[in-house]
Amino acid sequence: MASQSPEDEDYMDAFMDKFKTEKYEGGFNEDTWEEEIEKIPMFMKKVPTEIDPEKNPDLACLQAMIYDEDRPPEDQAKTYKDDGNYYFKEKKYKQAVASYTEGLKKKCSNQEVNAILYTNRAAAQFHLGNHRSALNDVIVARKLKPDHLKAFVRGVLCHIELKNFSEAVQWCDNGLKIDPKEKQLLELRTKADKLKRAKERDARKARLKEKKQLSEKEVLLRAIKDKKIKIFNPHCGSSDEDEEDRELKHLSELSLAGLDSEIAVSSTVFLNENGNLVWPVLILYPEYGQTDFISAFNEESRFIDHLHVMFGQELPPWDIDHKYLPTELELYFEDVEREEMYQINEGHTLLQVLQHKRYFVRNGTPSFIVLVRSSPFLKQYLTGRNVHIVK
Fold this sequence. Notes:
The protein has 391 residues and is of the alpha/beta class. Helices cover 49% and strands 12% of the residues.
């Protein structure tokens, strides 16, 4: 270190003596010095997102120097890479993606820098939940730098999130060819392989379940056909070539879907242990706009037995006149196509009614109308309709 000359020492002494009589006006304010020093770029703890040249002229000058378009593309790309890394550490992943993208736009000739930009952008995209975009970036990074292990790791993580477990295992294997002891890839391979086996096991179970359900549906369809029960199929064509396939498809959709009610819509027809069909049945009370839902109506059960349960000891709250008594009720079903009504005997079983030549089960749920015998509403409701009595 060079020694100071006597002239320099004399100058400094004179400079310091001046402040014994004169107050320095360019110093920091005692009360606000922390805020003032924070405005100096060298001492800034956080860089403002938007730089106002009037408020921060020094910072604006530095920014102009750093992002000078005349600088070499590689230097510009590295600057944006550093910016992206800063935003990434601050968990500002959208800004990080934007910075890495700007770096890639510089199209520098250094492929290693480009590979890092792609890999880092993939990491930011991953944290944003854009797993497909992240995977596309690491695929490009691998092409630019085939031995870039970070690209392998991030690609494996993407494949796992996308549930491409077989691909995740393959990426691990390819990466381990480069470094067989890479700890993260070894751990991820174990995880991916475990998930792959679980996915394959679940797929096998799903196929077996589907096969079993298909078999059960075929048995159910056969039982319905053997009992001469007709399923209404709005898509039924004129050809009989695939009639059974159409009926089986329609049967698979039997449910109460689309019914505007709070009743359980998951009930469907099934065969019990005695070989009897058990149906979900809907009972309609048009006089009051009410419904009842019987989730399991055995085909051998009589209507009167259910009516005694529904209107026996306790009447529904909407029957304010107490007129819905089992012995005073009449049951009907409607022939929608012919716009005709059929009165059925309360002593009939469900199977007897379903086997009627004009009864078609719609939406997988037989439905029936209940009216009060000799009531004014019954007469009004049936006026203008052809009514047949089922014997």
